[in-house]
Structure formats: C-alpha cells, structure tokens
Amino acid sequence: MRIWPIIILSIVTSCSTVTPVQRAVPRHGPPKAVPEKPFVNERLIKRLKQANAVVIDVRTLEEFVNGHVVGAMHIDFLRSDFEKEVGKLDRRKHYYLYCASGNRSGKALQYLLARGVKAETLEPYETLKSDGLALEGLSP
Fold first, then answer.
1. Which domain holds residue 70?
2. What are 104-120's pLDDT values in tens digits?
3. Is 130 among the domain residues?
4. Residue 72: phi, psi to the nearest 5?
5. Has residue 96 been placed in a domain?
6. Is residue 6 part of a domain?
7. Tens digit of pLDDT for each residue in 29-52?
8. Do residues 109 and 121 lie in contact, with contact meaning Cβ atoms separated by under 8 Å?
C-alpha cells in the first residue's frame, strides 16, 4: 500500500516536468514577420515635387537651422511677422506645412485656409526624417 503514493507522485511530477524535447519545440509557432516600413515615402515625395507644391517649415529659426526638409521655406509661426509673411504667399500654389509636433502647423493651416490659401499639414519633422525625406541643415 505504500507504493501507490510514490507511483502517483512520480506520474504527477513527470507530467509537469519540461523535457529537453518540449523546450526545443516552440509553443507559439514561428515568429511573425514584421513588415518593414519603407525607407522613403515615395507617395509623399511625388506630391512634394509637383510644380505648384511648396513646403513650409513653421518651426523656430533655431529648429529650422538645425535641420529641415530640403528646399523648405521658413515662416516661424511664433514670430510677430507671421501674418505679413503669409500675405506674401502665391495663392496659386499648394503649401505643405510641418513643425515639430503638429501643433503649430495645425494652427498655421487654419490661418492659411481662412485666407483662401491652399494648404495641408505634413507629419512632424522627426517622422518626415524617419520616412527618408531629404534633409539639410546642421544635424539632419
């Protein structure tokens, strides 16, 4: 009668012990392939190369000098002469605005649209940078 507890205990422990074969077999299947993000946002680049497209960086001068999209105009949204600079824009062109987070470019967009200027916002600068847009400045 004393043998039954030992047999039951050995069966229970053998079922819960991981064998080397069990360790080698993955439980969740092979890892899923993560789709790679395209290095260059080709669609965006195509839109920005249109004849009437102009990119405007609405960040501060310091931010602009430290890196910006190649060929971008600079109109600092926080400067007092922002309205004057916007007044000089050609209404026949289409403007693409960006800043560091989307806040200033969103406010600048509303200002431009209210004055009949065709415009839209781009992603924030760091996103444009990681999307592979051509940059220039001190630390693009």
1. 42-136
2. 999 999 999 999 999 99
3. yes
4. -70, 140
5. yes
6. no
7. 555 555 454 455 777 888 888 888
8. yes
- Give start and end residues of each alpha helix (H) in the chain: 3-16, 20-24, 42-48, 61-65, 82-87, 103-114, 125-130
Residue 43 tokens read as 């669609």
Distances in Å between the Cα of 95 and the Cα atoms of 13, 36, 133 are: 71, 30, 17
Residue 58: both structure tokens together = 């609405």
Burial of 98: CB neighbours in 10 Å, binned 0-12, 13-18, 19+: buried
**For residue 58, what is the domain's CATH number?**
3.40.250.10
Residues 6+ apart with CB under 8 A from 100: 59, 63, 124, 125, 126
Q: How many domains does the chain have?
A: 1
pTM for this predicted structure:
0.69
Asked whether residue 26 is assigned to any structural domain, the reply reads no
